[in-house]
Amino acid sequence: MKIAIFNENLLGIVQGNIIIDVSNAVEWKPSNPGESFQRLIENFDVLKGRIEDAIATSTSFPLSSVKLHSPVPSTKKIWAAPVNYKNHQIEMNKMFNNAPRTIEDLALFLKSPESLSGPTDPIILPFKDRRTDHEAELGYIVGKKAKNVKAEDAKSYIFGYFALLDISIRGNEERTWRKSFDTFTPIGPWIVTADEIEDPNDLKMTLWVNDEIRQDGSTRHLIYDCYKCFEVACNNMTLNAGDIIATGTPEGVGPIEHGDKVKIEIEQIGGFEVDVCHAVEKIEC
User: Fold this and answer.
1) 72 domain residue, yes or no
2) Fumarylacetoacetase-like C-terminal domain location, by residue (predicted)?
3) pLDDT tens digits for 198-223?
């Protein structure tokens, strides 16, 4: 099932080239999508049947005619994986000599929940004179409360997957600061529920800047796979339904500038394209 939020914060199910409004099936409140979404994932085992029953009789729209929002309206935590691909470590050391260690030593770091944005929202660059890079990643959302869950048991705790961009300012500040500006975690275009992804640790991932392929990798090269990232996160603190985990980026990261278009595509999930703008110039994208 592909779960999306669209137009005036309606709940939609994407099937092919259409999106079906199933808001009424789950008592979805467009005025409070955050609370509604939390209730949806916490009670999905019950609500899934209602959604499936409603699909045949609910209003549908061409997908191309709607505006998609972040499929996660809000979150309390975003855990992110640093240096989780060996070839990314190699390229960072060639460019900046700043990646002596991988996730095996670094564990995870937190990004601000306020950095979350959607698949049609522009990336806003806060500085004109700082290099800011794209990082293509597979992200997922936690489906239920978890603490000290082992990697081999993590699959049943994951609600679904989406494409994610981890936008990163280069510099000497802590990762959390450099990666937590508003609009620095675009996700989407929808959530693909975990039951539809047979193996999240073997998905092809591609990123373009304008028409140039910059990143062309696969999650099969993760150092800590999706489930190991989950284990590390919930060994540190309790994970709750609605928390997000970003699994790290493969090689090919590079700078983005005002006027660029960044597109990400992940096998079995889908993709989205966003504009890049300079905040200091106050120019509309």
Assistant:
1) no
2) 77-276
3) 999 999 999 999 999 999 999 999 99
